[in-house]
Design brief:
Blueprint: H1 4-12, E1 17-26, E2 36-40, E3 45-47, H2 52-68, E4 71-77, E5 89-97, E6 102-106, H3 112-121, E7 125-129, E8 145-147, H4 151-157, E9 165-168, H5 173-183, E10 190-193, H6 197-209, H7 214-217, E11 220-221, H8 233-249, H9 269-282
Parallel strand pairs: 6-7, 6-9, 7-8, 9-10, 10-11
Antiparallel strand pairs: 1-2, 1-5, 2-3, 4-5
């Protein structure tokens, strides 16, 4: 009934799950203190805390924790509250366990290096993809997962989830455009691209021409980061990482910006105001 090997395996598989532990019992109960059970996000289990109505209750509470996070304690009398025949009382601690959030950096250039370092120190699992072996090295990206391949192809083959963060930072604008088109349909936690506001405007117009909606385009955070006047690669990385952490913690992010119509006018006064503000701030903005 021990679950330690399963915990190691599930963690290695980047699975999200709840660890349920019997911490106290009174009277006759199906399991004693120390019994453990794992409940995965997909409903899979390992171990048991006794079966029956108490285990069903634990499964239901685990599903809530997997959505909201955190931990909780359940205390139930098995007969009086759950209709079981055991006659005792059980106290069970439940804790949601999640893998480190994954940041995928597409491109191994000047900004990617400090961004990866800050992300690692902030508790992220970092993957960097680039076809240039001279840029993608263990010396430049220690403790990162390195994928020596064209970033577009790497992203095509990388399975991603709604918990992943992706930053596009390649050396080629055309490559950035293709990657954005691959990434936008995916249910990522965060998608950002290094670049200026004029670059974002051009990309938005091209994405519209390819059938992407304004809502979809607004998921792309570019320029990436908070406006702190960043100039050096390290400063830009700090700005970008601040936005990524804000997304992780549920804090407000910089307002998404969508390019105006080709005519430069729109019937929506809010979008027109955004357009006019963007025009005033275009000059000199590069982060």
């Amino acid at each position: 009934m021990e679950v330690w090997d399963d915990i190691v395996r599930w963690r290695a598989e980047q699975r999200r799950f709840v660890l349920a532990t019997v911490v106290d019992t009174r009277g006759f109960t199906p399991r004693r203190p120390g019994a453990r059970m794992l409940i995965g996000e997909d409903g899979a289990t390992a171990g048991t805390i006794g079966g029956g109505a108490i285990e069903q209750l634990v499964r239901e509470e685990a599903a809530r924790l997997l959505k909201d996070g955190g931990s909780t304690v359940l205390r139930r009398h098995l007969t009086q509250e759950l209709g079981m025949c055991c006659g005792g009382e059980m106290t069970i601690h439940l804790e949601a366990l999640a893998p480190a959030p994954r940041l995928i950096i597409l491109g191994a250039g000047y900004i990617a290096k400090p961004l990866a370092a800050i992300a690692l120190q902030s508790g992220f699992d970092v993957t960097v993809a680039d076809a240039r072996s001279e840029w993608l090295s263990a010396e430049r990206f220690p403790n990162c997962t390195l994928v020596e391949r064209d970033p577009e192809l790497a992203l095509n083959d990388l399975p991603t989830t709604e918990h992943d963060y992706v930053v596009i930072a390649t050396h080629d604008h055309a490559l950035d455009q293709r990657i954005v088109q691959v990434a936008l349909p995916r249910p990522l936690r965060f998608l950002g691209m290094i670049g200026s506001r004029p670059k974002q405007r051009k990309f938005a117009l091209r994405l519209r021409a390819r059938g992407f909606t304004d809502v979809e385009i607004a998921r792309l955070h570019s320029p990436l980061g908070f406006p702190i006047g960043a100039e050096t690669p390290e400063e830009i990385a700090v700005s970008a990482m601040a936005a990524i952490i804000a997304a992780r913690r549920g804090a407000p992010l910089p307002t998404p910006w969508v390019a105006p119509e080709r005519s430069g006018r729109t019937e929506d006064p809010v979008r027109q105001l955004i357009h006019e503000t963007a025009q005033r701030n275009d000059e000199g903005e590069s982060t």
